[in-house]
Amino acid sequence: MLVHYGFEEAKNINNAVVTTGSFDGVHIGHKTIINRINEIAKSIGGESVLITFYPHPRKVLYPETQGKDLMFINSQKEKIELLGKTGLDHLVIVNFTLEFSRVSSQEFIRNFLVAKLNAKYIVVGFNHHFGHNREGDYGYLYKLKEELGFNVEEIPEQDIQHETVSSTTIRRAIKEGRVQRANAYLDHKYIIIGSLGKGTHHFTNVGFPTLNIQIEEVGKLIPPTGIYATSLEWNNLNYKAMLVVWADEENDISHLQNQFVEIHILDFDNQFPDGDATIYFQKQISVGININNPSKLKHQLSQGQKAIDELIY
């Protein structure tokens, strides 16, 4: 997958089959759309293209209201990693600004999808809107397809376990610690990508040395405090691990800056060097953490490790 930062970088794409959207989580509904544009591209000898925006439009348009506390399933680095596994040919990341937000849906279609990318097919998800004031939709595209020389297709709503799959539904599951349900909606394991650093004394002092996972992007959604069964991928190797999310109780724990993510790797005694690692969440083991009571913390960690040892994954 080639990553382009802006339309000017996305040149010489052959018979572009295009979709657009946030694609936060790259969940099962998103994959239905991506699979379809890959399928169409293959059938016409073309290339699949996904257009997404950074920062998220709500962060730019409503910084003090809707966008203020908006959290994301994926950081940009995680989204790129997940999209790279879908068979997508091109990812175009557009810098979303107030000026760009004023581009009408017709201008977006004419000046960017057609003029810049030479789109031959445009595929949209169920009830997807775009352009200034979200005025563009499937019906609008359908009206313009003959004039501008492209085909258009809408993907039906994707359901799983009788609930509509959406990034909002998945965010709610993660916020509640229900990572197994989130994984089902995502159709892959919920991940955190971060750089490895030295863990705090809280866990080393009770016999469970940890690595700190440094989250680069403010706004990345972290599950609530507790213990989680995870695996850590580093240097193309996988390790079974116990992850702990804890919070600075002296501050407002609702914000990422006051949440800490540390990981104890089972049956591993060597020192990890610095570098990025990917954490895959399997299951929540316990809710909350006794961070300020060493004896209770040790017992909780011992029970957590025992429970994770018994899991097969």
Number of structural domains: 2
Rg, Å, rounded = 22 Å
Question: What is the end-to-end distance?
Answer: 29 Å
- Helical content class: 25-40%
* Poorly predicted spans: 250-256
- By CATH reckoning, the class of the largest domain would read Alpha Beta
Biggest pleated-sheet summary? 6 strands, parallel
- State the CATH architecture of the largest domain: 3-Layer(aba) Sandwich
CATH superfamily of the largest domain: HUPs
Total helical segments:
10
Strand content: 25-35%
Here the CATH topology of the largest domain equals Rossmann fold
Strand order in space, largest sheet: 1-4-3-2-5-6
Name the structural class: alpha/beta
Which word captures the global form?
A: elongated
The count of strands amounts to: 14
> In sequence order, what are the helices and strands, one letter per element?
EEHEHHEHHEHEEEHHEHEEEEEH
Verbal overview:
The chain is α/β, with parallel strands linked by helices. The chain folds into 2 domains: 2-160, HUPs (Rossmann fold); 189-309, Elongation Factor Tu (Ef-tu), domain 3 (Beta Barrel), CATH 2.40.30.30. Helices cover 29% and strands 28% of the residues. The strands form 3 sheets. The protein has a 6-stranded parallel beta sheet with strand order 1-4-3-2-5-6, sandwiched between helices. A 6-stranded antiparallel β-barrel has the order 9-10-13-12-11-14. A two-stranded antiparallel sheet has the order 7-8. Helix 7 (167-175) runs antiparallel to helix 8 (179-186). The radius of gyration is 22 Å and the shape is elongated. The protein starts with a strand and ends with a helix.
